[in-house]
Amino acid sequence: MSGPDTLFTGISQLVTPHPGPQRGKAMSELVVMRDAAILVRGDLIEWIGPERGAPQAAQVVDLGGVAVVPGLIDPHTHAVWAGDRLADFEARVKGVPYEEILALGGGIRSTMRATAKASVEGLVALARPRLQALLASGATTIEVKSGYGLDFGAELRMLRAVRELQAEFNLVPTLLVHVPPTSGRAEYVDGVCRELIPEVAAAGLAAAVDVFCEREAFSVDETRQIFVAARQHDLNIKVHADQFHAIGGTELACEMGALSVDHLEASRVRQIRSLATSKTVATVLPGVSLHLGLPAAPARKLVNGGACVAVGTDLNPGSSPLFSLPLALALSVRLNGLTPAEALTACTVNAAAALGLGDRGALVPGQRADFLALHGEDWRDLAYALGGNVVSGVFVGGVKR
Ligand code: NIG
Ligand code: FE
């Protein structure tokens, strides 16, 4: 534990992207400082520089000669759910496609049935260890979506569970409009716009509204309708798009100034161009490619085209049971073609931008003092190791967690 005015020393290598969203070539421009020190005041970085010449501080914490990077930011999770998807998983590995399971009333719909039955306290208890795992892996800020509520009451319970967990973790809540009911979908979308979004906005239960725009979920027109309502209530917008089919969700989101478009496994030239020419962050989720055996999102092409790319775990029971953000980072190098430097930028400042946050993700004075001490002296371990113990200390607002 450390309070205000703490000087962290023993940093063999301090590595950080520049603050703010980085796009294209700039994603690989990291600042590397040898034998560095960080002065923390309150929960912010006050000063960074060479250890020789560091200012005096009330206390000094020697990290022991290791690499330090910014705390990682997970811009996409569904960490609140009840039930499990083990039977789905077994069916899928025997060859039944994810979308077919969903179309038959299983998949996301089975998680909805289990989640709708759970109380807020029950959901909190289920989500806590998942968030603890993500935090221990190095995720100092985590987005969490609703979306497994069958009805609006269950959606609100999910978001209340996130609100309770905000006392223990840095969470950014998102209202996810996930799959439509099997009948009465026009009324449902109308209800989302006229009841659910206003209620969520009034109670401050979400920072953004996300829609699953896909053949088996919501159409582009329905997504637009929901986005318009979100905007009317001053909520940011995000979308799950191009996971299986590029039906136009990416283009719509870029046009409407969404914070991010997430998935992109089926994106082609047109969608890449939309993202490269807009401010919308392209969030790739390599855990989904691994777990569902889907093609990987074209992150290499997105970066080459000049887009701002982020990486997330998409932690959820159906498509990505991935409880480690460093593993997502490492997979984005193998599966999506990012370089280690780009992947670090994608998991820090760009992930922050995907959440509309500008106060974290880079180690510079004025930013939140969220950082990771690694086990080794070279930060590239973070992108190299697949699992294992790369992170030795997780500091949130300058306090060891
Ligand atoms: O991000 N694609 C839609 N939603 C989630 C999966 C949810 C689930 O399968 O439970 C996703 O992949
Ligand atoms: Fe998702």
UniProtKB/TrEMBL annotation:
Task: Write out the residues that bind 4-imidazolone-5-propanoate.
Answer: R85, Y148, H178, Q243, S319
Q: How is the cofactor bound?
A: Binds 1 zinc or iron ion per subunit.
Q: What is this protein called?
A: Imidazolonepropionase
**E.C. code:** 3.5.2.7
Q: Which organism is it from?
A: Deinococcus antarcticus
Cofactors: Zn(2+); Fe(3+)
Where does the record place it?
Cytoplasm
Pfam families named among the record's database cross-references:
Amidohydro_1
Q: Which residues bind Zn(2+)?
A: H76, H78, H240, D314
- Can the keyword Hydrolase be found in this entry's annotation? yes
Q: Which residues bind Fe(3+)?
A: H76, H78, H240, D314
Q: Coiled-coil intervals in this record?
A: none
Instruction: Kindly state which keywords UniProt assigns to this record, in alphabetical order.
Output: Cytoplasm, Histidine metabolism, Hydrolase, Iron, Metal-binding, Zinc
Q: Name one GO molecular function term.
A: imidazolonepropionase activity
Q: Which family does the similarity line name?
A: Belongs to the metallo-dependent hydrolases superfamily. HutI family.
Output the InterPro entries linked to this UniProt entry. Amidohydro-rel, HutI, Metal-dep_hydrolase_composite, Metal_Hydrolase
Predominant location category: cytoplasm
The task this protein performs is described as:
Catalyzes the hydrolytic cleavage of the carbon-nitrogen bond in imidazolone-5-propanoate to yield N-formimidoyl-L-glutamate. It is the third step in the universal histidine degradation pathway.
The pathway that the record names for this protein is: Amino-acid degradation; L-histidine degradation into L-glutamate; N-formimidoyl-L-glutamate from L-histidine: step 3/3
What is the catalytic activity of this protein? 4-imidazolone-5-propanoate + H2O = N-formimidoyl-L-glutamate
Question: Domain Amidohydrolase-related spans what residues?
Answer: 68-398
